[in-house]
Design brief:
The protein is mostly helical and about 180 residues long. The protein is about 70% helix and about 0% strand. The chain has helices at about 5-20, 25-40, 45-50, 50-80, 85-110, 120-155. Helix 2 (about 25-40) runs antiparallel to helix 4 (about 50-80).
Length: about 180
């Protein structure tokens, strides 16, 4: 077997990275959150937009947010390999919140053709983004660690030790 060329090595690295960014779980989360936001119309979109426009708006905002969040998370996991999981989460959220807040601040006026003055204060928007990103991170972490705990305890409910003892040892096994 011949040694891969530099171009093939770069391609393999790139495909490995994007293979971790795109996951079936991320697609399920995108569809679920987009539908929930489309039907409920948070932040005044229920009265301001018709259902099809509202659904499209939330699908774009949520999709871009998930894509950016995944790229940031995968990059952070690779950079901080073998660090405690809680530290990786704090760094990832601290990096994602300002980026996602800026994206929402730019996308909303473009997609809805409204004045940026009608948006919440950037600090308020950042709190919303932190709450949503924190919830998604908690679900992702629970999904990652609960099966391992259940296997060890025979299904008995116990608090996961991932916040104190788990480390991001193999970032390639990231679930979502």
């Amino acid at each position: 077997m011949s040694k891969p060329t530099v171009q093939e090595q770069k391609y393999n690295i790139l495909m490995g990275f994007f293979g971790r960014v795109y996951t079936p779980f991320a697609v399920y989360v995108w569809v679920a959150i987009s539908l929930a936001a489309g039907f409920s119309g948070p932040f005044g979109t229920f009265t301001a937009l018709s259902f099809p426009v509202r659904l499209g708006y939330w699908a774009v905002v949520v999709g871009v947010s998930i894509l950016v969040g995944r790229v940031v998370r995968v990059t952070i996991e690779q950079r901080f390999e073998n660090r405690p999981a809680w530290l990786v989460e704090v760094i990832a959220l601290s990096t994602m919140v300002p980026i996602l807040t800026a994206i929402v601040s730019v996308l909303t006026p473009l997609l809805l053709q409204v004045s940026p003055d009608r948006l919440p204060h950037p600090g308020t928007l950042a709190v919303y983004v932190l709450g949503i990103a924190g919830f998604v991170s908690a679900v992702r972490l629970a999904r990652r660690h609960v099966p391992a705990v259940a296997e060890v305890t025979g299904g008995a409910p116990v608090a996961p030790a991932c916040w104190t003892g788990c480390r991001v040892k193999n970032a390639a096994r990231s679930i979502a």
